[in-house]
Amino acid sequence: MMEISRNKQVIAISVGVLVTFWASSIKGSYQVYFLDLASMCGLGRGVFSLTSALFGLSIGVLSPVVGWICDRIGPALTILSGAIVATFVYLLMMLSFNFWLFLVLFGVLAAYALTAMTFVPLALLVDRIFDHQNKGMAYAAITNGTAIGFMVLSPFWVWLNTFLTWQDVSLIIFGVFTLVILPACIWLCGVFPRRAFVSEATPDATEDDLKWHQHLRKPLFLLLALSFGGCGASMAYIDVHLVPMLQERFTEGEGGATIVASSLSVLGAAELIGAFVVGYLLRFSAPALMLALLYAVRGASLLIVLAADNFILCMIFAVLFGLTYMGTVIVTSLMCLKAYGEKVKGKIFGCLFTVHQIFVFGTVWLGGLSYDATQSYTLITVAVTGLCFVSVATGLVFYFSDALKEKPQSQMASSS
């Protein structure tokens, strides 16, 4: 691992938090404006949900591509490319709107932008500049911009939704990307140039590049992928179906918008806390056991929201789900790094995100179709809950299998 000064590590964390914070606006604004966008297109939820389903599937297809790009040009330039594409997308969105244009802009280009600005390149950046014992905490910190986005931006979008159109919101998002995010990404590229990440290649790197895909057929990857599928399905449920469900459930009460905004804000606050708690506990706990526990809590939270008919139950759901939100990504990233090493981790983690997003695609689209058929979100909620408990089982398989058993980070650091 390269020697990195503390100042550069602070810059990486600061810019990473800023980028993930505003990148969350891509999904957050869509989430709140989902019903308005469907109405603008004159489509039902089942058909219009194809936009977010394609968005999720595109992230899955593009994740290994982004991993490959990271391995070639480094994470900083990859993040900059995502910011540039996002700026272009929202420039076009504020100028024109129709279903097919939106399908391409949001479903494909915005998907690349979000992928290139978040988990895959940030995981590689953390892997390269932090020592092993601090990776979990650093990854929790650098991705917590997403949690802050839930806390701050989600209520902001709910408020704007009461008086601004989608084009107006697109103008706001475009302006921040242009004036704040792009300069920050350019600064990050100056601090961590391409040569800092690609000059460390060893003679074995080419051989590793040729053989990395062989791991995709092995039980370790397949179990990791199945586990990560529960993460994708549950995140898709939150990103697309939660807000419409709460909006309908509390539509007759005067405080409906308050319940929706509070749920998202509390979920974000719990996510912020949960990521640091998981990052800290990983120093002392087996990652596989931590993974199983996180999915168990997440599954329990979905059972609660299934019956939530008041403010208190919605807050309990938000706290429990939020505490697990980023933890599953952090733990899976560390398990992937330990299993495959730094040389090909970008590609393997990208492939895991492909599976993650296939589950996103299925959850988003089938959730919309099931609603159109039953006028209820019960079926999709039960299905996602079941997938979470399948992920609990895979985590326990990792923990109790001698071949796949994980050690706490403190043990791994001391043994190395």
UniProtKB/TrEMBL annotation:
Residues 9-403 form the Major facilitator superfamily (MFS) profile domain. It comes from the Bacteria. InterPro entries: MFS, MFS_dom, MFS_trans_sf, Proton-linked_MCT. Keywords: Membrane, Transmembrane, Transmembrane helix. One of its GO terms (molecular function) is transmembrane transporter activity. The keyword Transmembrane applies. The chain crosses the membrane at residues 47-69, 76-93, 99-126, 138-159, 171-192, 220-238, 258-282, 289-308, 314-337, 349-371, 377-400. Coiled coil: none annotated. Pfam families: MFS_1 (PF07690). The keyword Membrane applies. This is Major facilitator superfamily (MFS) profile domain-containing protein. It comes from Photobacterium galatheae.
